[in-house]
Design a protein that fits this description.
4-stranded antiparallel β-sheet; single chain; alpha+beta
């Protein structure tokens, strides 16, 4: 398989959701493919209404730059490129903690974004999602082949 399956995306969402429950936060969770197109976007009960949109921007950012958003945030004031990137991408870039690339066998297949907690909580939830995708095909968590 070369792309992100729905089963993998759902497994990522479930892993992020489980970590959010463990941390006691309600999140928006978004999973995008390698081109930044949405695959799954959810809002946990109790999450603010903006959380899914913010999560989607973080996921897009992690996919576009192929790195965690927490690593991008410090760069936004270091060069013209990084300062102009959000405007060039028409507001789709959000570089705060909670966006993580999804890798399978070292290949980017997508990204996950989480929003609703602190940057650290969002990062932990996104990392749990990435680990779920890297560790398997998502079939058990998603309940089937994703179709």
């Amino acid at each position: 398989m070369t792309g992100l399956s729905l089963a993998q995306a759902l497994a990522a969402v479930e892993a992020a959701r489980a970590e959010a429950v463990r941390l006691g936060v309600a999140l928006g969770i978004a999973v995008v493919d390698a081109a930044g197109h949405p695959v799954v976007v959810v809002r946990m009960d109790g999450a603010i209404f903006l959380a899914p949109e913010l999560a989607l921007k973080k996921a897009f950012t992690a996919a576009a730059f192929r790195r965690p958003t927490s690593a991008i945030a410090p760069r936004l004031t270091t060069s013209d490129f990084w300062m102009q990137a959000p405007a060039v991408a028409q507001g789709r870039i959000l570089a705060s903690g909670g966006g993580v690339p999804l890798l399978v066998d070292g290949t980017l297949v997508g990204a996950v974004g989480t929003s609703g907690g602190t940057s650290e909580q969002d990062d932990l939830c996104a990392q749990a999602a990435a680990a779920a995708v890297a560790g398997g095909d998502g079939r058990a968590a998603a309940g089937g082949d994703g179709r």
